[in-house]
């Protein structure tokens, strides 16, 4: 399978009311139903990296995923991994960061549903984006949960797979991994059988034991743990082994016959093809909306395709975007509905072994969840692939990088480029120096990722001939 350059052009697009900006764009099909696009707006400045995928494409699967597959997985940084690590451990061809999260606790703050399984309930009301085999959209979801023991009354549950706060009752499912509770509490282990934790369902369980207080507990498959703190503790402390109970979940906001995956975020950016930023209504401060930051967003087109975009920021080459500017990017991509995701240092797009954007922290940030893309992988070509570029480049100007296979040029349409450090690279293969120092250049082609280390210098020393060597002949 070969990549084919779908678009490489310089055009004019609307950057803001009454203004225009020159935007250079490259599009490279990755596999059937999946296209990568890079935009360079030199006026703002803003660099955008985006993936478009088409629902119901055979061999293409796109899901939201927790960093370690569970909320609090061993081997992660407090439940977090970088998008590159997430893609690598899952054998995904691409990954982009997802919902907002706490640095001290591994759970995303919003609703998350993975292939029909409820993973986390939202801790505040914000917009979500959902998709299924043929449909997608955004929705303001609400969820209620309760437990009803035999012989007892219905008791509301505060959260599912979120940290247990003061005076709360929380359910931990196997998707939690290891439940960790640091405040005084009581917990109950329940046998649940094999029924799935759907967003709207009624499940039957049997009390196994009332656990002695401990800070951590593994949630095995087929089990659940109820944890209560403060004035909620008496509600479950009297449960007895063998006692039957039911757990009811009701989630509103989507048609669950059509939607299987949901990622949280906020605020709304685009609704029905028009700007509709509602940051204040969703509890975001004004500075979050009006200052330029790195941004990540997801949206759907009128034809049903889905765009995921990562916009670099806090850099000389890319200032980032306000929420309105983010919405305008999504409109330019053709989105009729769009939702903002976590941004800042979390913004990252990892594609085919290459981090194509430039995270503002200088490296990828570990995040709690993301969106993974699975699809066909290219078979390796036989022969030697090589990046052709001088080991030292000048601080001013740009240098074109090329890829060769057995000494023959590889079409740039077949290459995905990425650069971190003292230079950045566009998808035409032009490496632009930013400062003195080291650059790590990566290129993907034909199933392989190649790396070259380059130094940006003020001037390149002339080549000196050995004493007594004859000067080259002039063939002019």
What does this structure look like?
Helices cover 6% and strands 44% of the residues. By secondary structure, the chain is mainly β. The protein folds into three domains: 7-140 and 256-374, no CATH class; 142-252, Jelly Rolls; 385-457, Immunoglobulin-like (Sandwich), CATH 2.60.40. The strands form nine sheets. Strands 1-2-3-4-25-24-26-22-23 form a nine-stranded antiparallel sheet, covered by helices on one side. It is elongated, with a radius of gyration of 26 Å.
Key phrases:
6% helix; nine-stranded antiparallel β-sheet; Immunoglobulin-like; 476 residues; Jelly Rolls; mainly beta; 3 domains
What strand line-up does the widest sheet have? 1-2-3-4-25-24-26-22-23
How big is the Rg? 26 Å
- Specify the number of helices: 4
| Large-scale geometry | elongated
Span between N and C termini?
44 Å
Residue share in helices?
under 10%
Content of β-strand:
35-45%
Q: Total number of β-strand segments?
A: 39
Unreliable spans are 1-20
- Counted up, domains total 3
Q: What is this structure, in a nutshell?
A:
The chain is built from four helices and 39 strands.
List strands and helices in order, with pairings.
Elements: E1 7-16, E2 19-31, E3 34-41, E4 46-53, E5 61-66, H1 83-90, E6 94-97, E7 112-114, E8 117-120, E9 127-131, E10 136-140, E11 142-149, E12 155-157, E13 159-160, E14 169-172, E15 178-180, E16 185-191, E17 201-211, E18 216-218, E19 223-229, H2 233-237, E20 244-252, E21 261-264, E22 268-271, E23 274-275, H3 286-290, E24 295-301, E25 306-311, H4 323-332, E26 335-340, E27 349-351, E28 354-355, E29 369-374, E30 385-388, E31 392-394, E32 398-400, E33 402-405, E34 408-409, E35 416-421, E36 423-425, E37 430-433, E38 437-445, E39 448-457
Parallel strand pairs: 13-14, 31-39
Antiparallel strand pairs: 1-2, 2-3, 3-4, 4-25, 5-29, 6-27, 6-29, 7-8, 9-10, 9-21, 11-12, 11-20, 14-19, 15-18, 16-17, 16-19, 17-20, 22-23, 22-26, 24-25, 24-26, 27-28, 30-33, 32-37, 33-34, 35-38, 36-37, 38-39
